[in-house]
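In this supplementary section we document a worked example of the pipeline. Step one takes a protein sequence of length 307 as its only input; no multiple sequence alignment statistics are reported here. Step two produces a three-dimensional model, which step three serialises into structure tokens for compact storage. The input and output of this example are shown verbatim.
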Amino acid sequence: MKVGILGAGFVGSTTAYTLVLKSLASEIVLIDLSEAKAEAEALDVLHAAALNSPCKVHKGTFTDLHNSDVVIISVDAQKPLSTDAFDILDSNKAIMKKIVPEIVKHAPNCIILVATNPADIITKIVLDFSQFPKERVIGAGTVLDSARFRAILAEELNVAPHSIHAYVMGGLGSSALPSWSTATIGGEKILSYAARIGKPISEERQKEIAEEVVASSSRINRSKKSTYYGISASLTKIIEAIAKNQRADLTVSTLQEDIYGVKNICLSLPTIIDRTGAHQSLLPDLSGEEAWALKNSALAAEKLSKI
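The serialised model returned by step three reads:
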């Protein structure tokens, strides 16, 4: 599989490294405004590849995207640490207007994977600019948020994260919805299981966990200025589902033509990912309160999409 990565910053370069460690790519092209940065990161990852599996890793230009199976967009406008992701929407939209036609020109059959924030809105912008089929434009969505949710629950209940099935749905940030009503372990509702083993999760604790999930990115940013391991692992997880035709369900952001009456927005729901892209978004049987919260998240995305 050939993967093009636009942006050789922390997210782009770490994703290249993770793809090499997982042996998921035969060729990786790093493209950046700074050719020196792209070349240095490519060399560093190439040397790591020599200790793992054969992979051609090199810097490139848009023409080098030819025959890419997946193109990752991880470029964004530079912003101060205190700046909210939504405050750079106009700048990032302008960047997409420049780079998306180049992707379409040089890799017309690729799947585009969007990591640039605000990811849901940028995913819709990329879809509109590219005119690709909706299954071939995928936002990173809440894959990482769902992983954070599972990690916290695993710690709370002293079980392996992979044994827990729990989703964060909707948009990013404060409108994200960690769903308690659909969270399970071994087929049993997570709240029921927690109570049965003597570790009940009170409503107050549920709110604390939900806030911790949503605030994790800001908390990490305050201390280390950037987040990249988690999002890079999430992007790699999505690419793995594509490369191995897994038909895995991941909470990626894709076009939702109608979600509780809100039409044509990109939002994160459990979605089947295979070799050809994202298909069959699933709408879990949510509680009434959660359905209301998801609709509000959709409305927030709709509002931002019109800016």
